Amino acid sequence: MKQMTALIKVSDTTLKRYENFGLLPKIRKTAGGQRRYQEIHRQAFLTIRKLLQGFEITTAYELMRLALAGEFSQSYWLIAQAQKQLVADEEALRRNRTFILSLPQEHLAQQRLRIGELAKLAQVETSAIRYWEERGLLISQRGENGYRYYEEEEIKKTLIITSLRKTIYAIEEIKELLANKEPETIQKLKHHFLETKAKIDEKLAKQLEGIAAFMIYCTMLKEN
């Protein structure tokens, strides 16, 4: 075990946890109870570490269990599903970037909306809009009939908040962003999108590294 922990640079506790979770091929033990690892175990450990860098923990663990059970096709489809989600995230980011960065230059067709109308446009619940208003992100006007109305600037803010909440921004970060003057806001938005795109690109690269290691591991299992 000491040799294996030194080789793959993890603790013996981590190795035992992988074994207890049923992620590894059966490990032979000596009469004295010492573990004896083989090359396939080394590849299993390396594969787990690579998968965890690009996939969710539950996905990485499920892939290892499926491979060990000989369910290779099922594991490949699980990878395809995770990659499909990453593609969807990247496409959504591109759509949001194009949409949001065009808002300052464009006048909206709807320049005054009631809360229900705004919620429908932004595809959120009215409770979300009320919450954002309570947190100081939006300002409504009260009409003579007592209804809440949102002017064009607040409509644009709502659309920005909705898009950013689908990525990495927290409420307080969005509040600070919207408080800036327009040129500063646009610059921060551009930086946000570049930063998020870089993270998605990095995740894709990590996934591909994990997939490469996983395919080697699957081949070894098939030949074992």
Summarize the structure.
By secondary structure, this protein is mainly alpha-helical.
Features:
224 residues; mainly alpha; Multidrug-efflux Transporter Regulator, Chain: A, Domain 2; 2 domains; three-stranded antiparallel sheet; two-stranded antiparallel ribbon; elongated; MerR_fam
Q: What does this protein structure show overall?
A:
- This protein is mainly α and 224 residues long.
- It has two domains: 107 residues, Multidrug-efflux Transporter Regulator, Chain: A, Domain 2; 111 residues, Multidrug-efflux Transporter Regulator, Chain: A, Domain 2 (Orthogonal Bundle).
- Helices cover 70% and strands 6% of the residues.
- It is built from ten helices and five strands, in the order ααββαααβααββααα.
- The chain has a three-stranded antiparallel β-sheet. It has a two-stranded antiparallel ribbon with strand order 1-2.
- A hairpin with a 5-residue loop joins strand 1 and strand 2.
- Helix 3 runs antiparallel to helix 10 and helix 4 runs antiparallel to helix 5.
- It is elongated.
- The model has no long low-confidence stretch (mean pLDDT 85).
- This is MerR family transcriptional regulator.
- InterPro entries: DNA-bd_dom_put_sf (IPR009061), MerR-type_HTH_dom (IPR000551), MerR_fam (IPR047057).
- It comes from Enterococcus xiangfangensis.
